[in-house]
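Working notes for the structural subgroup meeting. M.R. asked for a predicted model of this chain before we commit to crystallization trials. I am recording the input and output together here so anyone reviewing the notebook later can reproduce the run.

Input as submitted:
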Amino acid sequence: MALFAVWKLHINGVGGNMEQNLKCLVVDDEKSNLDAFLTVFGDDFDLVPALSGREALTILDEDQSIAVVVSDQRMDEMTGVELLEEVKKKYPEIVRIVLTGYSDYQVSIDAINKGDVFRYLHKPIDMDETTNAIEEGLKKYKKSVEEKKSIEDTKEQIRKRFLEINESLGAGIAHYVNNGLVPAKTFLTFLPEKAKELKEGNYDSTYFENFLEEAVKNIEGIEGLTESLLWAHNAQIEGFESVPVSDVFDLEASEFKDLLSKKNLKINSEMERDLPSLFVDKIKVKEMFVLLLKFCAVASSEGQSIEIRASKTTDQPDVSSVRFEIGYHGKGYAPKDIPRIFDPFYKFDEQLNTEVKGLELTNCYITSLKHGFELKVESDPGKETAFIVDLPFLVS
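Returned structure, recorded in token form:
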């Protein structure tokens, strides 16, 4: 059977300048067909020939620049489907294309089920169809490699950020706990003496009221810190699942709802229609949003509103995520302070340090990183502040 439907010595540069560093491995045990393929497509793609499946696998072991494998199906030693099945196991990122005869319907089914092929091309080969298949295969491979690198870069970013957080945690915890224990230690040191005075009818109001109140407040602060540390320790992502956007917001959480009522706050919610379900750890993301909403409620000016927005990202075409913005009207932060907001022991104003426990924003930041994105802050000092985080969804 003829290999090509139309004989052409050169294709007008369709693939010529596209992926100069990536190669296409062409496998056919009939040398005449293989030579013809190389002649027709060799000017436009960097082609590597192989006369058998075994030779192809050897080449793949040695050449890391192979991005696409195009294999004839009917070969004696190893069929095209068998070869591509092996390629899938050993090099899953490599794009696989099989050449079949029009009558090989079962081959097409096997190629999809076993070899997970990107395209199957019928003989005699159509020039434009084949060129397009190789070109799209190179693009697919490049995108896959870039996505893999992006994931690795994100993991490295997470690792470095965790190291930074851990470095500040040790000294911060020691300082926080030692300072917090001073009032309690002072109270207990003088307790026998003050108890004796009390029996004699001398009541030291400064000691029993001020010192005791300060001691209790600091111990509660230490309790809050230990709760946050435990939360951070248990922040491992248990399992990703498909979750509707509406299920990650708990607007009925008591600690948040009470603040809304106390400060007469309203919620303005703008959710883009038909948002896809997220692919996240539902429990951790839900906890993250409760903490962010609580922070916004505490920091917001009385009688204002908390803004919640959600929309699919459009500024990153290759990223499948939903962007959430949670903002409040009130005291903002100067640009120099924003990078420190997620530090474990960043000092907010007195009100926030009293009502927001220890590492809550740090924990939110950790959760965002573990989902592959970074929680960010935008602030207009004295006016408004917004937390922004992207969360992934599955592409159907």
